[in-house]
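Dear U.,

For the methods section draft, I wanted the exact inputs and outputs in one place so we can describe them consistently. I've listed the two proteins in the order they'll appear in the manuscript figures. Please don't edit the token lines directly; just add comments below if something needs changing.

First protein:
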Amino acid sequence: MKVRQGYTFDDLLLIPHHSEVETRSSISLDVDLGKGVKLTAPIVSANMKDVTEWKMAQAISDFGGLALLHRVHDKK
């Protein structure tokens, strides 16, 4: 498996510059994560129980992202 370097928001400093993009509708945010997983929005939520619940997972999915749900162990 080939591992690629990734970045988080703490790793980058964004400074606005002139852009040749005329309209936002002319760009694509599509991302191919491999093995047939393609997203229309580059959003992947954390699988922490206090971060992503099923309602948030549904909203992220509807937007085109990927939500990972934390597994809950029922102690019944």
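Second protein (the one for the lower panel):
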Amino acid sequence: MQLAWFPDGKSLLIGTSIRVGGTTQDSLWHVLPLERRTHLLSNGFREPAIASDGRILCMAREDVYRAIWIMEADGSGARRLKEPGGPVVRYDSATWSMTGRRIVYLAYSGSGAYDPGSRVLHGIRLESCDLEGGAETPILTSEWLGAGWQTARFICWLPDGRLLYSLPDSTQSQDRWDVWAIAVDPNSGSVQGRAVRAFSVLGGQAWDLTCSADGKRLALVKGRAQLDVYLCALEDEGRRLGPPRRLTLDERNDSPIGWTPDGRDVLFVSVRTQSANVYRQGIDQRYASTLLEPPRTTQHAVFTADGGWILYHPDPLPGIERPAGLARLAETGGSPVAVPGSDSTWFPVQCGCRVGAMCVFSVCADGRYVFYQLDTSEWKAREMARVEVPPKDWRSFWHLSPDGMRVALEVGGRTRIIDLRTGSEISPLPAGRHALELLGWAADGGLWLGLGDGQGSRIVHADLSGATREVGTLDYFSSVCASPDGRYLAFDRETYEANAWLVEGF
């Protein structure tokens, strides 16, 4: 997974991560390509970086890749150079100065929490230290350090003292990353001057920055990850998944959030202009259209069961304060209208897809979800049920059944089903099946669940009597939505592309 040249220019250091029998084995190997010889340097380490004298920085599985290790060129004398403590919860992305007297790395403080929506790690500092782990010198702090799906070696210390690092551009576009340069003394670590943009990379993210010995050429990898919406037909009366086919054919990130009530169009979120919006695309169409006419945008929208109304949470328009709550728009068009009495706590709103099914929203308060029915004839809300949720599971998401009478939510790794009419809990899964990931409701009133096996997820159907059946396997995904007519599953699939580039004159 990683490789680097030793200073002699004749041998390579290769870091591997091999999955064997359900566990991952890491190791570092010394390879002489011209002689076709290789030998093991050390087990349990990965992500190596080599100094000008051959010493190695790396990360170790035994401390969950939170500490920085240093060892000799032959793999001996391994010791922790930096380990978490105080406000720092982990270290990452360590590399050497060209003199080999200091290292530079990322220090994550506070929670270091990962936000899957923006792919940002908060509380991150770029700093350097000496070879005893002391004399720490801060370089810069940015909430976008460590952003992106690939962060390997996005730091490079040039012979002229400039430190290069890559960040997404200020609009957080997936199509542009900027490589910045800041002068840092390679012996003392002191910062000299302000950071300046060295160059921009269009069409993807930049990582694996390495420079030639004279510092005049820079090699990097430019790549991108992209989410697209795929469809799988449910064949043999829902007993088997058919082959997946790609629905969205653009070059943007697309993730499904639902369907139109007739099961003909998929709703998905995408960033195709300056902000995210909801789009709709027919299952046999090549192109999508916006659900809302510009400049209105939203990232969450749903149809009422009769298809007559679109309910959505408006994003703010330029120069206008964020609307107080929920808005409704006739499917035939016209101007949106605010739902009386709604506010920003009415989230999310979901609607059943069967004839006469109601819409439901939740409000989080005092350690519980409070569920309300929204009457779409008079646009009034009434409380239906309350569900206690432990603080550690506060961000649990819920799904509304096709008839609008039940909600399913995953709390503490366990699927719970609540009957909104009585507030009572249903236990649909037999012993040993509660660890399955909740994906959503099936059109027949059962549940779709996922069981990860390291190569994807086995898709499991469970009915409310507890009977389960596996229907097939899907590759890695983050969102699955079943069509109201029971014919399809819509899901997102992430694909990758990457190429090596050479940069001069930076």
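Candidate sentences for the figure legend, describing the second protein: Residues 112-121 have pLDDT under 50 and may be disordered. The chain has two domains: 2-224+497-504, 225-496.

Thanks,
Y.
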